[in-house]
Amino acid sequence: MPLTTTPDTLPTSTGAAILNLLLPHHRTTDRTHASAEAFPRQLRRITEFVRQGAPIAFTLPGFPCKSPNPAKVLGHLPDMGERLSLTFLNTLCEEIERIYPPGARMTICSDGHLFGDLIGVPDEHIDAYADELRILISQSGLKRLSVFDLRDVLGDLPHDAKRAHVHGRYAPSLDALRGEIRADDNALALYRGITRFLVEDTADHRGTRSALQRACRQRAYGVIQRSRAWGDLITSHHPSCVRLSIHPQPIGAPKFGIRLLDAPDAWTTPWHSAALRRTDGTWTLVPKATAAQQGRLVQREGRPSHFVQTE
Questions:
Q1: Are 46 and 19 spatial neighbours (Cβ–Cβ below 8 Å)?
Q2: N or C: which end of the chain has fewer CB within 10 A?
Q3: pLDDT mean across residues, the chain
């Protein structure tokens, strides 16, 4: 007997089809392949948009600022890595529109200000990065993307006051976070990943490496606290959105990890690396020092943009 499609099953099947467009780009350390049904939270939320006939609304915390380590990045402004990543995200929304006419919209939730004092990036560099993201989105015609940051919430308050406000209202306690990291393997992996980034991003440390690692382990707790706070703030302002993440996420997690560009490491992002165009025309993200060994630097609009592989 053939299956029939009812008004109730149609939104679910459409939601699964939309989620299937995201699955090839799932950023995860899991090695098993999963179907859309393995992501019930995301499927339920997408299906609700479909029932309403509304555009799917995604939020993606990320694109905070460039790493302060000049061996990893080309400068403090967005470059080809961000350009390619934003174009990919906009294209993903366009692909959704082909199978679901209301389409999708994605809000890039950028706020390096929450972490600037912990990662050694000046607030003026963070503002310049976010402003350039908006310009890049506009000039590239990426109409399905927008940028949200703390200026949309707290206006022109001093940056230290903004950090204190968000941390005080939303951040988990240090004791609770330490307990979670001890008990949860995924939380531990995130803590270790952020600690590694903090060590790698410190370019001018004058003490011993063991002292640097100790300091970065402590700062990693602060980064995670404020990341959680930012996530809760985003939820309060965008309560119905489908939450994406630039960090690897296990199958079925509340957040769906999304890979922006090919990279040898599941943790690599455009703001911790440089874009390298391989000889076969494909792109990857690698530290600037590595890219410089493999290719030549390309300028775009008077600024360093990316590398082209010559080997």
A1: yes
A2: N
A3: 92
Q: In Å, how far from its chain's centre is CA 117?
A: 19
* Token duo for residue 182: 């001890």
pLDDT at 204 over 90: no
Q: What are phi and psi of 68, to 5 degrees?
A: -80, 0
How far is the C-alpha of 258 from the C-alpha of 276, rounded, in Å?
A: 20
- Lookup result for tokens 């995201």: 22
Q: The tokens of 210 are what? A: 């063991």
Per-residue pLDDT reduced to its tens digit, 262-308: 887 778 899 999 999 999 999 999 999 999 999 999 999 899 999 99
- For the segment 60-66, the average pLDDT, to the nearest whole number, is 95
Task: Please give the span between the terminal C-alpha atoms of the chain, in angstroms, as a whole number.
Answer: 60
Distance CA 256, CA 243 (A): 7
Stretch 80-109: mean pLDDT, rounded?
97
β-pairing, 295-300 vs 283-286, is: unpaired
CA dist list (Å): 62 to 114, 129, 261? 12, 12, 14
Handedness of CA 302, 307, 308, 311 (dihedral sign): positive
Give CA–CA dist 223/119, Å, rounded: 9
Q: How many residues does the chain have?
A: 311
The number of C-alpha atoms within 13 Å of 261 and in the hemisphere containing its C-beta is 24
CA distances from 99 to 50, 110, 201 (A): 11, 29, 42
| Cα 62 to Cα 257: distance, rounded to the nearest angstrom | 11
DSSP alpha helix (H) spans, 171-267? 174-183, 185-201, 209-237
Threshold 0.85, pTM exceeds: yes
Q: How far is CA 212 from the centre of its chain?
A: 26
The DSSP annotation for 119-181 comes to HT--HHHHHHHHHHHHHHHHHTT-TTEEEE-THHHHTT--HHHHHHHHHHHHPPPHHHHHHHH
Count other C-beta atoms under 10 Å from residue 279's C-beta. 11
